[in-house]
Write a structure and sequence with these properties.
The complex is a heterodimer of chains A (146) and B (79).
Chain A: E1 3-6, H1 12-17, E2 26-33, E3 43-50, H2 52-69, E4 74-80, E5 82-85, E6 89-97, H3 100-117, E7 120-126, E8 131-134
Parallel strand pairs in A: 1-4
Antiparallel strand pairs in A: 2-6, 3-5, 3-7, 4-6, 7-8
Helix pairs in contact in A: 2-3
Chain B: E1 2-5, H1 7-13, E2 17-19, H2 28-38, E3 50-53, E4 56-58, E5 69-73
The chains are: A alpha+beta (146), B alpha+beta (79).
C-alpha cells in the first residue's frame, strides 16, 4: 500500500525504508509538521479530519501520475488524522530515484499535489481552548483542472 | 442518492450525510440546488463547491447517476 492514512505518530523510518532500492542512489523524505508561527496565533495542535476512502484513492492516483512523470520512482505518502500536537509530523512523502534531482523534484511534486487534491481538513486548536477551521493558502481548487 | 458533507459543511448542516431523490440527467449543479431547497442549512454550500463523485473530483456539469456517492468538500487543507 503506497498511500496510508491514520492516527498516531508517523513512523518516518518505515516510510523511508519503504522506498529503499539498491539501484537508487537518492532518497528524499519530506516531513510536514504542525507549526506555531507568529502569524498563526498560539496554535497548540491541529485536528485533522479526512474523507479517508478518497484520500487513499486520490493519493494513489497522484502517486501513479508521479511514476509516469519519473519512471522508476518509488514513492510513499502518509497523512495523519486526529489531533496532532504542535511540532509533530502530519504528512510525510518519501521518494527514491537513481539520482537526486529527480528525487527532489518528485517529492516536491507529490507534496504539492497532495495539498491541492487530498480531501483533508484541519481545525486549529489554540492555547485558550478556542478552535477554528483553517484552509491552505496554496490549496488551489482542482475543479478547473480535472 | 447519498450526499456526504465534511468539515465545516457537516458542522453547519448538522449532519454528515443525507439521501435525496434526483431526476435522471441531473448534474452536480442541480444537486446543489436541490440540497439548498430540501435540506435545512444547506445554504452554506457555495455556488461552486468542490465536489467528488464516487471519490473522484468532478466539475459542476458532471452528470450524476442513481447510486452515486456525492461528497461536498470544503476548501482543502491537507499537509
Amino acid at each position: 500500500m503506497r498511500v496510508t492514512i491514520g492516527e498516531g505518530p508517523v513512523d518516518l523510518s518505515a516510510i523511508l525504508d519503504a522506498v529503499a532500492d539498491g539501484a537508487h542512489g537518492a532518497a528524499v523524505l519530506f516531513v510536514g509538521s504542525v507549526r506555531r508561527a507568529p502569524e498563526d496565533g498560539p496554535v497548540a495542535a491541529i485536528e485533522y479530519t479526512a474523507y479517508e476512502a478518497m484520500v487513499r484513492e486520490e493519493g494513489q492516483r497522484i502517486l501513479d501520475e508521479a511514476v509516469e512523470r519519473w519512471p522508476g520512482l518509488i514513492v510513499r505518502l502518509h497523512h495523519r488524522v486526529g489531533v496532532v500536537p504542535r511540532g509533530q509530523p502530519s504528512i510525510a512523502v518519501a521518494a527514491s530515484t537513481g539520482h537526486r534531482p529527480d528525487a527532489f523534484d518528485a517529492a516536491r511534486w507529490v507534496v504539492d499535489e497532495a495539498k491541492r487534491r487530498l480531501p483533508v481538513w484541519k481545525r486549529e486548536q489554540f492555547d485558550d481552548g478556542s478552535a477554528r477551521w483553517r484552509e491552505n493558502a496554496d490549496g488551489a481548487p482542482p475543479l478547473d483542472t480535472v | 442518492m447519498v450526499c456526504r458533507f465534511f468539515g465545516r459543511y457537516a458542522e453547519a448542516i448538522g449532519r454528515e450525510a443525507v439521501t435525496v431523490r434526483i431526476p435522471d440527467g441531473a448534474s452536480v449543479r442541480d444537486v446543489v440546488a436541490r440540497l439548498r431547497e430540501a435540506v435545512e442549512d444547506a445554504s452554506c454550500l457555495p455556488d461552486r463547491p468542490l465536489v467528488a463523485v464516487n471519490r473522484m473530483h468532478v466539475l459542476p456539469k458532471h452528470v450524476v447517476q442513481a447510486g452515486d456517492e456525492v461528497a461536498f468538500l470544503p476548501p482543502l487543507a491537507g499537509g
